[in-house]
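Input sequence (348 aa), recorded before submission:
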Amino acid sequence: MKKYLAFAGAVLVLAPAVFLHSAAAFQQPVSRPTKAAKKPVDFTAKLNGTTDSLGKTGVVPKIQSAAIAKDGTITVRVTIVDSNDLALDRLGAVTPGPVSMSFIAAYIPAGQSQYVSYTTSVSKPTLNLTMPPQTQAANDSGGTFATNSIGDYTYTFKTKAPATFDATVTTSIGVSAQRDLSAYGTFDEWSETGNDVFNFVPNGSPVTVTRSIATTADCNQCHDPLIGHGGSRLKVELCIMCHSPQTINADTGLTMDMKVLIHKIHMGSSLPSVIAGTPYRIWHRGAWSDFSTVVFPQDVRNCTTCHGADAPQADNYKTNPSAVACTSCHDDVNLATGVNHVDRKSVV
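Predicted structure, token format:
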């Protein structure tokens, strides 16, 4: 039986779809030809994905284009459709359920491999007030929407890229869309969610640099599906835009960089600090998420299980171990089979 991780209050489980009852068909007078009953619309939010095992989602966002103007103005054009590929009204006036969308804009600096976010927020400590505030990668806040047509929108970020922004490097826009179908039933938040990430170079050059060390498909070998932050994050390609070295937890001082965070979460009960009696937990949105009892699946023997061949940089653990900080946690890195999870250093 699979054991799923709880992250930031979200439990990685598969929820059954909720089906709505149909209204009775309208009956025509007997003196007139009887019309066929109109089939009621199924507003049921379905699971995210493209396969029969995962089903489909209640909202599918797709970023069509993005740009950064010379003055730093960031814009993105996004379309949203339902599980039948029908356009959705963002405000919910024409189609059932309003759709909220949040956006993040980040870039990979020249010569580097991880994101730096243009969009940030300041996180203040709520537990240990002696800790300094932290400027973290975050979603944009206060931007504006323009309607091109139903289901087709342009979002202008409130955040501007600095005047010195590099127009020659890979820039990415991420979106999390959430459709509110609460008027039609009770659904898990994640079943009404869709994510997308769009890569471009502001000066129009082709994209040659990306960051893809593990894919959502890799994660979903065990997490079916992967979810985080209460259900609003379903794609690891979006997660890594915030979870970079730029983001430090203001309450604990711990890095939220994905390559450190995920390895520590999966080591859980095997972390030397946990074995010594210090729990590995993260304070987020007013609650602790404790990963101290997580047991990494025993059938996972090496790095290739999580870093599959579908990720362009999946073999970084072999070709450039320091890029994923393998040797900071492990005494022995076997370049043929991956890290032996027994041979680890005494690090937290």
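Checked by second reader. The first helix runs from residue 216 to 219.
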